[in-house]
C-alpha cells in the first residue's frame, strides 16, 4: 500500500458525487420545462361501420352453383342436339367430408373421378371411387355422393346423355 491510495478514493468519490448531482439537476430542469397536463378521462371510441371491401373485380365466366345440398356443379359443355339424344358435360364438386343429398341427373351419366376419393351410391348400390376411376349411372337412378378425402374436394366429370327437353 502506498500513501496516495486514500486520496485517490476521495477523488473518485468526489467525481461520482459531482456526476450524480449533475444528473439530478438535469432531471429537475427537464421536469420543470414540460408541465404535465391535467388528468382527463380516456377518449370515447365510436365504432366505424365499413363497407365490405371488394379486393378483386374477377368473376369466373362459369362459376359453380349448388345443385343439391352438398353438391356444386358447373356446365362445361352442351353439344348441339342432333337426333334423339343430347350430350352435356358437367363438373361436380363435393366438399371435404361432405355427403350430398339424394338427387337424380338429367339422363344417364359416365362419372370420371378427377381427384379425391369417396363413395358414389346409385340405385342403392355403393361404389368406392378414387382419382382416375370411372363409373356409370343409369337414367333416373337416385344418386348420393360422399367425399372421404381429408382436406380436399371430390371432383367428378359427368358426361350426361339424355333426351332433349323442348
Automatic annotation (TrEMBL):
Transmembrane segments: none
Signal peptide per UniProt: 1-30
Keywords: Signal
InterPro entries linked to this entry: RmlC-like_jellyroll, RmlC_Cupin_sf
Gene3D superfamilies: Jelly Rolls
Protein name according to UniProt: Cupin domain-containing protein
Species per Swiss-Prot/TrEMBL record: Paraburkholderia steynii
Amino acid at each position: 500500500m502506498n500513501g496516495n491510495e486514500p486520496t485517490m478514493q476521495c477523488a473518485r468519490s468526489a467525481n461520482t458525487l459531482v456526476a450524480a448531482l449533475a444528473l439530478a439537476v438535469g432531471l429537475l430542469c427537464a421536469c420543470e420545462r414540460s408541465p404535465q397536463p391535467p388528468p382527463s378521462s380516456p377518449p370515447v371510441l365510436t365504432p366505424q361501420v365499413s363497407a365490405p371491401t371488394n379486393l378483386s373485380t374477377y368473376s369466373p365466366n362459369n362459376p359453380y352453383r349448388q345443385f343439391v345440398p352438398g353438391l356444386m356443379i358447373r356446365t362445361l359443355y352442351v353439344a348441339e342436339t342432333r337426333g334423339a339424344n343430347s350430350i352435356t358435360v358437367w363438373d361436380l364438386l363435393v366438399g371435404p367430408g361432405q355427403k350430398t343429398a339424394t338427387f337424380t341427373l338429367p339422363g344417364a351419366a359416365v362419372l370420371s373421378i378427377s381427384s379425391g376419393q369417396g363413395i358414389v351410391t346409385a340405385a342403392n348400390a355403393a361404389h368406392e371411387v378414387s382419382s382416375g376411376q370411372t363409373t356409370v349411372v343409369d337414367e333416373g337412378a337416385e344418386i348420393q355422393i360422399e367425399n372421404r378425402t381429408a382436406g380436399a374436394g371430390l371432383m367428378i366429370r359427368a358426361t350426361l346423355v339424355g333426351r332433349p327437353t323442348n
